[in-house]
Amino acid sequence: MAQPGGQSPVIGITLGDAAGIGPEVIRAALESPLLDRRLLFRILGDPAAATPGKPTPATARNAIAALDQAARLALSGDIAAVVTGPIHKARMQAEGFPFPGQTEFFADRWRAPDFAMLLTGGALTVALVTAHIPIIDVPAAVTTPGIVRVGRLLAAFLRLRSGAVPRIAVAGLNPHAGEDGLLGTEEIHVIAPAVAQLAALDIARWTGPLSPDTVFHRAAGGEFDAVLCMYHDQGLIPLKLHAFDQGVNVTLGLPHIRTSPDHGTAFDIAGAGRASPSSMIAAINLAAELLAARA
């Protein structure tokens, strides 16, 4: 785990909106025996400036400042990876944050035009062809080049983690994967050609397009290493049902590692001692795992 010269890598952890559960789950995670004790951590953000459960414009601005600091420190080499606490997107956007989420923020700051959102937890790993867009815009945004682009990123992530050739299922967009065109033709004209292009790259074993109502059951049962999903909720609903307390968000395609727990600010329970640190622990451990694999 050590960097050249024997120095342990430093993982920067942003508090997110400090009025939420970020500070308490981070504190609990850092006290957990489940973390690699060779790691060093740097907390970014000011918990003293917030009251649990009472978000303000100031807490949103502080969350933005912590993200800016994390991006700069990674670029300068002062931290080796970033783990981000939960934010409230709408409150941050009201304070001038111009991004749909943290995924897009880091892609912009680190000049990574080719990026995608992945979530992993339990026996499921899902990557998203489209992410933070309205559902009405999804069909037009699902394109053959887009599927190939995210598929390549997903395959590289899985190979980094395991060293093996991954087995990846590709979900359809429509019910029953279009039912041979009866319920939609995207599977025929958009998704199947993408699967053929991916198969020609010889970077993974691809299956699909498969019916979305069964593919996650098959993946959780061990038939596939990941599912390539067409839109946000198609992947996140089964992931959170399967591994709500262990889910981790990873931004693929970045020059620096960024992970995050797969939960929100939970202002309603902040400070009550009820928030589980499991997802934060998993996010930190995955960042450490990816650092070791890259090294």
Overall description:
- There is one protein chain.
- This protein has 295 residues and is α/β, with parallel strands linked by helices.
- It contains 10 helices and 10 strands.
- Strands 2-1-3-10-9-4-5-8-6-7 form a 10-stranded mixed sheet, with helices on both faces.
- Helix 2 runs parallel beside helix 4 and helix 6 crosses helix 7.
- The chain is globular, with a radius of gyration of 19 Å.
- It starts with 9 loop residues before the first strand and ends with a helix.
In a few lines, what is going on in this structure?
Helices cover 41% and strands 17% of the residues.
Compile the SSE list and pairings.
Elements: E1 10-14, H1 22-30, E2 40-44, H2 57-76, E3 81-84, H3 89-94, H4 102-109, E4 116-121, E5 124-128, H5 138-141, H6 144-162, E6 167-171, H7 186-201, E7 205-210, H8 212-220, E8 226-229, H9 232-243, E9 248-252, E10 257-261, H10 278-294
Parallel strand pairs: 1-2, 1-3, 3-10, 5-8, 6-7, 6-8
Antiparallel strand pairs: 4-5, 4-9, 9-10
Helix pairs in contact: 1-10, 2-4, 6-7
Question: What's the shape?
Answer: globular
Mean pLDDT: 95
Which sequence of strands runs across the widest sheet? 2-1-3-10-9-4-5-8-6-7
- Our estimate of the beta-strand percent is 15-25%
Keywords:
295 residues, alpha/beta, 10-stranded mixed beta sheet, 17% strand, disordered N terminus
